[in-house]
Amino acid sequence: MLFNVKPRMDEPEVQEVLACAVFPDPEEIQAVMETYRRNESHSLFGYASEGDLVAVAGFRAEPQRKLVIQHMAVHPHSRGAGFGRGILLEMLEAFKPKQIIVETDEVTVDFFRNVGFRVESLGISASGIERFQCIYDAEAEE
């Protein structure tokens, strides 16, 4: 079940799951939360299973019904159970985007590729990590 967690960002369980998508530094997590607080165009939704928060997705809506995912994470204890795919499917149903875009690294690019995203390399970042842009064309699937 998808639900808005933006009003609950100060709750430890929300911060714990969001921290899985952010460099694990308390200052970085606070900076990310502040971005969601200050920007109405930024949404933060959670995905629950049996009453527990198991995943979050933070995104911004852009013109032409595009969603740009900025943060997405599944709690480590819940990985491999389909919750990442579940939160994406719920986002497609709830927001009806034409396209979903996410930038990621080598660690999670295969997840996006496996759920139907088109993957393009953005090259090596300044930190020496290859980055990828993943694009899902939702209307092509209808």
UniProtKB/TrEMBL annotation:
<dbReference type="Pfam" id="PF00583">
    <property type="entry name" value="Acetyltransf_1"/>
</dbReference>
<keyword id="KW-0808">Transferase</keyword>
<dbReference type="InterPro" id="IPR000182">
    <property type="entry name" value="GNAT_dom"/>
</dbReference>
<protein>
    <submittedName>
        <fullName>GNAT family acetyltransferase</fullName>
    </submittedName>
</protein>
<dbReference type="InterPro" id="IPR016181">
    <property type="entry name" value="Acyl_CoA_acyltransferase"/>
</dbReference>
<feature type="domain" description="N-acetyltransferase">
    <location>
        <begin position="1"/>
        <end position="141"/>
    </location>
</feature>
<dbReference type="GO" id="GO:0016747">
    <property type="term" value="F:acyltransferase activity, transferring groups other than amino-acyl groups"/>
</dbReference>
